[in-house]
Amino acid sequence: MRKVFFLCLLILTAFTGQAQELKGTPGTFTLGNKEFLLNGKPFIIRAAELHYPRIPKAYWEHRIQLSKAMGMNTICIYLFWNLHEQQEGVFDFKGQNDIAEFVRLVQKNGMYCIVRPGPYVCAEWDMGGLPWWLLKKEDVQVRTLQDPYFMERTKKFLSAAAKELAPLQIQNGGNIIMVQVENEYATFGEEQAYMEATRDAVRTAGFDKVQLFRCDWPTNFNRYQLDGVATTLNFGAGSNVEDKFKVFQELNPTAPLMCSEYWSGWFDHWGRPHETRSISSFIGSLKDMMDRRISFSLYMAHGGTSFGQWGGANAPPYSAMATSYDYNAPIGEQGNTTDKFFAVRNLLKNYLQPGEILGEIPEAKEIIEIPTFELNQSAGLFVNLPAPKKSETIQPMENFDQGWGRILYRATIPASAARRKLVITELHDWAAVFVNGQQIGKLDRRRGDNTVELPPLTTDAQLDILVEATGRVNYGKAIIDRKGITEKVELTDGKTSTEIKNWLVYNFPVDYEFQKKAKFKKGTATGPGWYKGTFKLTKTGDTFLDVSSWGKGMVWVNGHNLGRFWKIGPQQTLYIPGVWLKKGKNEIIILDVDKPEATRVAGLREPILDELRPDESLLHRAKGEELDLSGEVPAITGSFSPGNGWQEVQFQQTQQGRYLCFEALNAQQANDPLASMAELELLDEKGNQLSRLKWKVVYADSEEITAANHAADKVYDQQESTFWQTQTVGGKPKHPHQVVIDLGEVVKVKGFRYLPRSDKSTAGMIKDYRVFLKESPFKL
Ligand code: GLA
Ligand code: CA
């Protein structure tokens, strides 16, 4: 029996030329002429991206095997610096963080590995994987050589990571075939020297033999060069593959082609519709890549869950990521197979190497239901305050050595009969404001809220501002995103403003040990507070915790942090892996900073990921509001040419203004009533792009925000794959369509750059347009 087995293995090895290094024999992986070479033979990478912290360790192998069963030969992983170095200088690569163990599991299952150690990774992960404690340095800069401290810490992390993984390079008998340098750097900067230094740091750290690569977009990869490093491109489901590689191939005629992130779906934001990508559009381009022998990595093959505090955010406009990272990926959040999964498996089985066998689908994980039960103990937040710290000025939580969670700022405000307001600069990210214990307002950074009206006060009063941090920005220039209140709180009566000083500061970290300490009593708390309950199980299994009757906060089950919830959706359930449950008694603690409608939960067999319950209009147009452009003089009137890609337009003269109106007069296709736009950039007199960090949409005549996420602010979210599109159903959309943006300050503009949508659809692509720029607001 054993002999037969070894004989088979020998034959298989001879056939594929791949298997020997998967058993510990050194091998090679190099760049050939238009193809990758594995041990000297052509090799097409079919990779599945998985994120080890988004999968409980006990399920790692299950997800790896599912990926193999989909037809993959490689697993691609990011390393998350801030997970491994939660305290400066203290590294953790054990248990759930044991990356070497993960890579060895991949090898055990006969697959190769691509490692993307950062230091920056994006990934809808808090601060894109950078540790929050970097922000304790006041003038810190990231992803640049300008800050030696950032580079020094980067090198330390890379060395620690390489200590774990360098022995697993293919040249050492491991299965790691490539290692990535940084991540989509061209979307952030053009500092070639930084990328060179990071490449060298990856090498010096210990990834000294393996093939290096870097990934960027088809439209921007040429912003810097990186010698000795392969270039791969990222793009999404439904892309025109030939188009995406066209420019790259012209410039690099002999390079092997790889789509290093082929986006299978997309991620969800709180308060925005659930994202999906159709199977047909997704499979079409994948087949095209296979037919052209183009390597790919599916981002994500299985997204999993951003447990705990790890979900990130985008900005501008600030918008935090939901907890589920299901991603509409082929393997669902619970490790379940979907129609997309079978579509990939059915496709890829036709493209296996000779002798390669499609992996078997591992057994599904059991799902259980938990009947509804009450959390009948509670502990009010205000009667469970930790010891405060004193601070003359208000400061972000990082300055108090707190990484995540909630923070309460308390001060005294003087009596006054006048009408006064509080003005907060800046609120990160959500707050409830109390005067003498009475809630007087709630503020939300997504809307740019920063003021609260104060009631008249006959005596001095106690002011409490409870701030919840909901994920650090993980993408773009807004990544330096301190939490709490970052600058000041002012009291203003319309004439004079005074800064409020002498604060008491209470820190509420996310650790379970901290939540456990609250003094629970029977009954319901008034105001923000913790709730506790227990439930008994006779058998364990995965389940989806229905938190739809709760306000906003976080959940811990048996000490495991399940992540954030928010009643606005679109997700109304939180995934509980069965391995975190036990037979007998289980404990659940919920911290709600807003207010539960009912204090009950249940375990469901299916997740609810698409139930949006916005607590305010998300549209950038009030009822009855109509933009009046009569009497306005356009800065320019013009026509775009049809087709994809950036187009640049110069004004006759430099214009000055703060309010910009872009008006689409018609579409490229006759009778198309829609307007759509992926990105809009303004250029100064030197042709440089103006910062878009302060931009805010003040008006959009129409936006599709129910059927899909095409809000007007998608024109400056720095994502080429997202776009504004006017409403397709319901309303009666017709031209002209306008979006008005407050640029946040008066600027000089000489021209602009426009990017049409870049998926296969051409709906709403703009033809004739007008642009207006004014110092005063437009008439609405
Ligand atoms: C980019 C990044 C990824 C991820 C995706 C979107 O491609 O490289 O980390 O953020 O966008 O999911
Ligand atoms: Ca966009």
Folded structure, characterized:
By secondary structure, the chain is α+β, with helices and mostly antiparallel strands. It folds into four domains: about 350 residues, Glycosidases (TIM Barrel, Alpha-Beta Barrel), CATH 3.20.20; about 100 residues, Galactose-binding domain-like (Jelly Rolls); about 120 residues, Galactose-binding domain-like (Jelly Rolls), CATH 2.60.120.260; about 140 residues, Jelly Rolls. The chain has ten helices and 41 strands. The strands form nine sheets. The chain has an eight-stranded parallel beta barrel with strand order 4-5-6-7-8-9-10-11. A six-stranded antiparallel beta sheet has the order 26-15-27-32-29-30. Strands 16-25-17-22-19-20 form a six-stranded antiparallel beta sheet, with no helix packed on it. Helix 5 runs parallel beside helix 6 and helix 8 runs parallel beside helix 9. The radius of gyration is 27 Å and the shape is globular. The N and C termini lie far apart (about 80 Å).
Provide tags for this entry.
single chain, alpha+beta, TIM Barrel, Jelly Rolls, 6-stranded antiparallel sheet, globular, binds calcium ion
Q: Low-confidence parts lasting 5 or more residues at pLDDT below 50?
A: 1-17
Q: Superfamily at the CATH H level of the largest domain?
A: Glycosidases
Domains, number: 4
Shape: globular
Q: What hetero molecules are bound to the protein chains?
A: alpha-D-galactopyranose, calcium ion
Estimated structural class: alpha+beta
Main beta sheet: 8 strands, parallel, barrel
The overall strand count is 41
Distance between the termini: 82 Å
Q: According to CATH, what is the class of the largest domain?
A: Alpha Beta
Rg is 27 Å
Helix content: 10-25%
* Main sheet: strand order: 4-5-6-7-8-9-10-11
Total number of helices: 10
CATH topology term of the largest domain: TIM Barrel
Proper CATH architecture of the largest domain: Alpha-Beta Barrel
Average pLDDT taken over every residue: 94
What fraction strand?
25-35%
